[in-house]
Write a structure and sequence with these properties.
It holds the Pfam family HNH_5. There is one protein chain. About 40% of the residues lie in helices and about 10% in strands. The chain has about 110 residues and is an alpha+beta fold. It has a single domain (about 5-90), classed as DNA Binding (I), subunit A (Orthogonal Bundle). The strands form two sheets. Strands 1-2 form a two-stranded antiparallel ribbon. It binds zinc ion. The site of zinc ion has 8 residues, from helix 3.
């Protein structure tokens, strides 16, 4: 599933996000916040703004689609949607990732 968003629309949404970053709403939000994805408390200077649905997937720069995010998650998330990303995180946390070579089936 890949949406072809015209560059003009992307530019507009990026600009809107920039404007919202300066808004009182966002500034208040990041005073004392945590990462939307990993729930790590983030210092104000480290907060990045993330689109839950990326602009490239048709997401808009609205308050409902913008969340504070730590730099680590922001970099890793890239163009994944929040749902895909959350699934990825859940896998990591529950230890069911295929990379795990340890046998979970034990002597219960
Ligand atoms: Zn995070």
């Amino acid at each position: 599933m890949y949406l072809d968003i015209p560059e003009s629309v992307r530019k507009k949404e990026r600009q809107k996000a920039k404007d919202l970053k300066k808004s009182r709403w966002w500034q208040n939000l990041i005073q004392d916040t945590e990462c939307y994805y990993c729930q790590t408390p983030i210092q104000r200077a480290q907060v990045t703004m993330d689109h839950i649905v990326p602009i490239s997937r048709g997401g808009k720069s609205t308050r409902g689609n913008l969340v504070p995010c730590c730099k680590t998650c922001n970099v890793q998330k890239r163009s994944l949607t929040a749902v895909e990303w959350t699934e990825y995180l859940n896998q990591e946390l529950s230890g069911t990732a295929p990379s795990s070579t340890q046998s979970e089936a034990g002597t219960e």
